[in-house]
Amino acid sequence: MIRLESVYAGYGGGDVLQGVDLAVRPGSITCVVGPNGAGKSTVLRTISGLLRPRAGQIRLGDQHLNGRSPAAVIAAGVVQVPQQDGLFGQLTVRDNMLLGGYLIRRDKARLRRRMAELAETFPIIAERARDKAADLSGGQRRIVEFARALMTEPRLVLLDEPTLGLDPKTCQTVFETTRAIHALGATVLMVEQNVRFGLKLATDGVVMERGRVLLAEPAEELLARPDIAAMFFGSSAGAGTATGGPDAPGH
Fold first, then answer.
1. 123, part of any domain
2. Counting C-beta atoms within 10 Å of the first and last residue's C-beta, which end of the chain has fewer, N or C?
């Protein structure tokens, strides 16, 4: 689906990514985990065009994404759901959804069809269509955000720390919504600070450290590895849940 080859990228002249090699299988949910500052969110920003790589190649199938604008990356079939709430609170749910379909705005029939299709999977889109996004609960807003990302029928959905700052109930909503995105045919590449949550949801797992890919294995196998348990959960594999903040610019 997408492949990064020896990608270097960063902020202010410094490279956060130190030659990242990463391959995402079509039809997978791939979860990238790692300590703070590993470059996880920087990978997503580089793929989505928010950050230009200094060196290396990014390929989506047979297309090169290097240097493309975010709009061009979306047109190629890649969308990113932001780390924090990205809805426009004073706009209705319907209007937020239509913004997700901006690139196909001239095809009114396609917009209506896509809205109806997504409403079947995410009923809240129709049920709360006329309500302002600000009036939704945290979990409801997250569902609308995820659904909005699907308006252009993307091939690849990037999720940046989807559970950051959320309560357990809303985290469960994120889990179920991510599964729904996958069931609709999209490949998912996610960065997640809650390691257990992310790897239990994923089919494939990637561990990053210091701007490089350390390991890439089936998620279930990664979660069972004693060295990974020690890295994220301490000396006891069953102790707690690993969490950490997002990669900030410069990290």
1. no
2. C
Say if 245 falls within a structural domain: no
Q: What is the CATH number for 6?
A: 3.40.50.300
Rounded Cα distance, 29 and 57, in Å: 22
Q: Report how many domains make up the chain.
A: 1
196-232 pLDDT, tens per residue? Answer: 999 999 999 999 999 999 999 999 999 999 888 888 8
Neighbour tally for 226: CB within 10 Å: 9
pTM to 2 decimals? 0.88
Distance CA 217, CA 146 (A): 26
Contacts of 196 (CB under 8 A, 6+ apart): 223, 241, 242
Q: How far apart are CA 230 and CA 89, in angstroms?
A: 41
Would 197 be classed as within a structural domain?
Answer: yes
Q: Please name the residue that has the structure tokens 């257990």.
A: 196
**Which structural domain range is residue 38 located in?**
2-86+155-233
Asked if the structure places residue 20 within a domain, the reply is: yes
* Share of residues in the chain with pLDDT > 70 (%): 93
The model's pLDDT over 105-137, given as tens digits with 9 standing for 90+, comes to: 999 999 999 999 999 999 999 999 999 999 999
